[in-house]
Design goal:
Helix content: 40-55%
CATH class of the largest domain: Alpha Beta
Number of domains: 2
Order of helices and strands: HEEEEEEHEEHEHHHEEH
Number of strands: 11
CATH topology of the largest domain: Glutaredoxin
CATH superfamily of the largest domain: Glutaredoxin
């Protein structure tokens, strides 16, 4: 082995040992000082020198210094590229397997050839959802699976039940979201709504709308027509 190659190998081993020691220090100090940090899933370097990402509870992201003396809770923003790095990281960690979604608990609206697929968790009383639905209404060649997700109020549960029990769920949904026509009072088995809430808790869906594209990409919040098209084309 050449002297240069030996040096590179030694350098890599040293850097690896240093990184392991650094991680051990962060885990030890944070775990001893903060109860919620006793079970840390992962410690990795952030894009900022000297700042480390700490992940707990699968998808909760924090940042700390090399000694674990300080803890930052919030979003890390890339101002040059105008990217929310924390949000992107959480979205990647919380990506869902589209094919594993219980689509029987959603109602379906098909536009055009329906080749592209999208699942959406929505509350009927969500103003952002109504704005999103107006933009989604302009999209064609897509199959949309809507999971009713009543988390905003008791009335959200009532409306969700009436929509789910309707003979033409998609029409009643759109009549309400786009035209403010209240769904008729109907009763039926609404256990699917309870399963939707359980599914949302499992995958930490805390707001509506939450979009799941065919490739597993998860997007929280209302996005416009151009953005919807971009994600659909990327996932297809």
């Amino acid at each position: 082995m050449s002297t240069r190659l030996s040096f590179l190998v030694l350098l890599l081993l040293t850097l690896g040992a240093t990184a392991q020691a650094q991680e051990a220090t962060i885990r030890k100090n944070l775990g001893e000082r903060l109860s919620q940090m006793q079970k840390i899933d992962e410690v990795i370097e952030s894009p900022i020198a000297g700042l480390y990402e700490v992940r707990v509870n699968q998808t909760e992201i924090y940042y700390t210094d090399a000694q674990g003396n300080y803890l930052i809770e919030g979003n890390l923003l890339d101002t040059r590229e105008r990217r929310n790095l924390t949000e992107e990281r959480i979205n990647k960690l919380s990506a869902l397997n589209f094919d594993a979604l219980p689509l029987k608990d959603a109602f379906v609206i098909v536009r055009g050839n329906g080749k592209r697929k999208l699942a959406v968790f929505e509350d009927p009383n969500c103003g952002y959802c109504k704005r999103f639905e107006r933009d989604l209404d302009k999209i064609t060649n897509v199959t949309v699976y809507t999971f009713l997700y009543p988390i905003l109020s008791a009335d959200s549960g009532v409306k969700s039940k009436n929509i789910w029990c309707a003979k033409d769920k998609g029409k009643v949904w759109q009549d309400w979201m786009l035209k403010e026509q209240s769904p008729p009072n109907i009763t039926c088995d609404v256990s699917a709504l309870s399963r939707n809430l359980e599914l949302g808790r499992k995958y930490k869906i805390t707001g509506t709308p939450t979009l799941i594209f065919a490739d597993g990409t998860r997007v929280p919040g209302a996005i416009n027509t151009t953005q919807i098209e971009k994600y659909l084309n990327s996932a297809h």
